[in-house]
């Protein structure tokens, strides 16, 4: 049993904290305010290997661990949750399924460009009528010679507008329900594929969340990811990994709100004393920090188990459930401790509170996480 | 081209707080970092490597924990790292430190030796120039910029008080670099993953070429007489008067302090 970071992880943490503080934090308010995708940050992250942390070196990645990757998403999200989810969706939802389920040719074709950050990745499962009920997919893929013809649409797709590669799910056999779903890799510019409406969101406003539209989109057969009809399993495994990323994002948001609040309560004076001198403030901070540290342990454990090739699906679900609800609670308290100022955009905690909410919803709602956790208990 | 960069691990002085009672530095929990001037020197070397191709070696003298900045240097892209550590080096002032480093540098072939201008913990700016003297090499201090012609001539921009000098110097030579010369790169993630797989060569007295009497406490002609926190100046006197009267008061005060006769 060992709770210490390795020397390598400590060195990584030093770098990613510096990077987040100097390169990401200064843009966070503007990215939120203007709903602007921080492409220049992605370019900077690409240059130093942040877009390919857990991708093996043979495919152009950094060859790092999922623990390192979760630390990166945490530190980025502590200053800008938009930047955190860009990295998370790119890595966990696009590069990871290609790494885990792709053919050697697919890996050689896509991973070096994704890992280097030359290309950005996205993932399309959700549809207007198929959210938690993923089996309700209406997007279809019909075999046609050497191709599949895809029709339908996907919604709420992170990175959509700026991505070059998309892993998407479509029904190849409607009669089979979840056993009739197949995964495909789709490149930007594929005939019949376009980006639809951009969502106006409550939080993570810079992450370019859009609709994907497929109108007789022609995809070559070699772009099928995994085997025919095995798409649902691929999607579920992909989301297991993605949950580590989103749990890390939630953890980062909570930690970021704590950092801001500790600074504020020492400066803000009421009744002749800094508000940090009041026991209510102290008790709130203690609760915020304890829950955030507990989230961190769950996130690191899930990431460690993925690295150790142990089953981690339940761990990822618990990490995401707990970290997301903690992020919501901690940011809410952070705003409360900031008082009226906390409700304004002069201070970052209101943004953090808006950003926190999505972590209870995407890549499996908190209710879905509870289903995953309890199903494992009752099987 | 072969480049050697001298780096030092220092406490991050921006994080240091003063104990309000004893007036001494609180070093507990203060992170150790690569000295900023040295890091800019390292960046200068890595830029030369990127542009013209070069083999970059870093060397540090310090206790075992200084290994961290050598790993950081590996993660930034250096090719070789040497850690100079031996009980015989302990208690060294700048002169003894420069003797030890020069002793190690006699064992390394290089065209350019880069050091930072000065370390933020001591602020002496002596070690770089002293090394150059021991090795009998030309030196240029306070560098803002450096270009290499690809053969053996460096063009350097040297910061001076009221402007800058442009100089041409032939290899081999020694330069000291200002932190304002550039913005050091971040460690690369893949580089971090590899940093602890690479070898840091640990050199002691037996690996270097130096006279033992020049090392450590014995080789240090300077010693710290006293360290103290600078006291606060008392509040000044405020006069709300016209210009003529103010001039009179200032002259009177300067005479009282014997600054004017």
Automatic annotation (TrEMBL), chain A:
Cofactor: FAD
The enzyme's E.C. designation: 1.3.8.10
Alphabetical UniProt keywords: FAD, Flavoprotein, Oxidoreductase
Acyl-CoA oxidase/dehydrogenase middle domain ranges (all copies): 122-217
Segments forming domain Acyl-CoA dehydrogenase/oxidase C-terminal: 230-378
InterPro entries: Acyl-CoA_DH_CS, Acyl-CoA_Oxase/DH_mid-dom, Acyl-CoA_Oxase/DH_mid-dom_sf, AcylCo_DH-like_C, AcylCo_DH/oxidase_C, AcylCoA_DH/ox_N, AcylCoA_DH/ox_N_sf, AcylCoA_DH/oxidase_NM_dom_sf
Taxonomic superkingdom: Bacteria
GO MF assignments: acyl-CoA dehydrogenase activity; flavin adenine dinucleotide binding
Residues in Acyl-CoA dehydrogenase/oxidase N-terminal domain copies: 6-118
Similarity comment text for this entry: Belongs to the acyl-CoA dehydrogenase family.
Protein's name in the database: Cyclohex-1-ene-1-carbonyl-CoA dehydrogenase
Annotated source species: Labilibaculum manganireducens
UniProtKB/TrEMBL annotation, chain B:
Entries under InterPro entries matching the protein: ETF_a/b_N, ETF_b, ETF_beta_N, Rossmann-like_a/b/a_fold
Protein name stated in the entry: Electron transfer flavoprotein subunit beta
Record domain Electron transfer flavoprotein alpha/beta-subunit N-terminal: where: 22-212
UniProt entry keywords in alphabetical sequence: Electron transport, Transport
Signal peptide annotation: none
Gene3D superfamilies: HUPs
UniProt-listed PANTHER family: ELECTRON TRANSFER FLAVOPROTEIN BETA-SUBUNIT, PROTEIN FIXA
Organism: Labilibaculum manganireducens
Pfam families: ETF
Entry's Gene Ontology molecular function annotations: electron transfer activity
């Amino acid at each position: 049993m060992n709770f210490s970071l390795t020397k390598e992880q400590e060195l990584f943490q030093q770098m990613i904290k510096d990077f987040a503080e100097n390169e990401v934090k200064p843009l966070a308010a503007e990215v939120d305010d203007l709903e602007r995708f921080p492409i220049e940050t992605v370019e900077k992250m690409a240059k130093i290997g942040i877009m390919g942390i857990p991708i093996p070196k043979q495919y152009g990645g950094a060859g790092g661990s999922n623990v390192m990757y979760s630390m990166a998403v945490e530190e980025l999200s502590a200053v800008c949750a938009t930047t955190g989810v860009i990295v998370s969706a790119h890595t966990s939802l696009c590069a990871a399924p290609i790494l885990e389920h792709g053919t050697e040719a697919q890996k050689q074709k896509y991973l070096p460009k994704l890992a280097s950050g030359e290309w950005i990745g996205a993932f399309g499962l959700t549809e207007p009528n198929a959210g938690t009920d993923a089996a309700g997919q209406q997007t279809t893929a019909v075999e046609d010679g050497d191709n599949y013809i895809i029709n339908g649409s996907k919604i709420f797709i992170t990175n959509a507008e700026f991505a070059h590669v998309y892993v998407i799910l479509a029904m190849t056999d409607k009669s089979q329900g979840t056993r009739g779903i197949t995964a495909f890799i789709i490149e930007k510019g594929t005939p019949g594929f376009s980006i639809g409406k951009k969502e106006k969101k409550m939080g993570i406003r810079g992450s370019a969340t859009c609709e994907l539209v497929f109108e007789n989109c022609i995809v070559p057969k070699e772009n099928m990811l995994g085997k025919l009809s095995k798409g649902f399993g691929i999607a579920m495994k992909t989301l297991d990994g993605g949950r580590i990323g989103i749990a890390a994002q939630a953890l980062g948001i909570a930690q970021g709100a704590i950092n801001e609040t500790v600074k504020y309560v020492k400066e803000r004076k009421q009744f002749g004393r800094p508000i940090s001198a009041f026991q209510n403030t102290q008790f709130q901070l203690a609760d915020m920090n304890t829950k955030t540290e507990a989230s961190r342990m769950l996130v690191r454990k899930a990431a460690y188990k993925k690295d150790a090739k142990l089953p981690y699906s339940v761990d990822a679900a618990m990490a995401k459930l707990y970290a997301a609800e903690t992020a919501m609670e901690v940011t809410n308290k952070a705003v409360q401790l900031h008082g009226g100022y906390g409700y304004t955009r002069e201070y970052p905690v209101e943004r953090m509170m808006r950003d926190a909410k999505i972590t209870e919803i995407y890549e499996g709602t908190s209710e879905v996480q509870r289903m995953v956790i309890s199903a494992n208990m009752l099987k | 081209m072969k480049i050697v960069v001298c780096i030092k691990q220092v406490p991050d002085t921006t994080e240091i707080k003063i104990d309000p009672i004893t007036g001494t530095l609180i070093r507990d929990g203060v992170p150790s970092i690569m000295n900023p001037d040295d890091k800019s020197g390292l960046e200068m070397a890595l830029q030369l490597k990127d542009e013209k191709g070069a083999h970059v070696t870093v060397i540090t003298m310090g206790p075992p924990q200084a290994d961290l900045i050598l790993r950081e240097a590996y993660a930034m892209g250096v090719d070789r790292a040497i850690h100079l550590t031996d009980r015989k080096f302990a208690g060294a002032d700048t002169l003894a430190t420069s003797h030890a480093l020069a002793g190690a540098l006699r064992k390394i072939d290089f065209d350019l030796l880069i050091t930072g201008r000065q370390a933020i913990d001591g602020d002496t700016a002596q070690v770089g120039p002293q090394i150059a003297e021991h090795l009998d090499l030309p030196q240029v201090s306070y560098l803002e910029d450096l270009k290499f012609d690809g053969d053996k001539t460096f063009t350097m921009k040297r910061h001076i008080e009221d402007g800058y000098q442009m100089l041409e110097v032939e290899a081999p030579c020694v330069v000291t670099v200002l932190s304002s010369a550039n913005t050091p790169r971040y460690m690369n993630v893949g580089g971090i993953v590899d940093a602890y797989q690479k070898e840091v060569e640990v050199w002691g007295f037996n690996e270097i070429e130096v006279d033992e009497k020049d090392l450590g406490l014995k080789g240090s002609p300077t010693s710290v007489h006293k360290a103290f926190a600078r006291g606060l100046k008392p509040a000044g006197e405020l006069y709300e008067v016209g210009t003529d009267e103010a001039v009179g008061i200032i002259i009177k005060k300067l005479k009282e302090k014997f600054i004017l006769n």
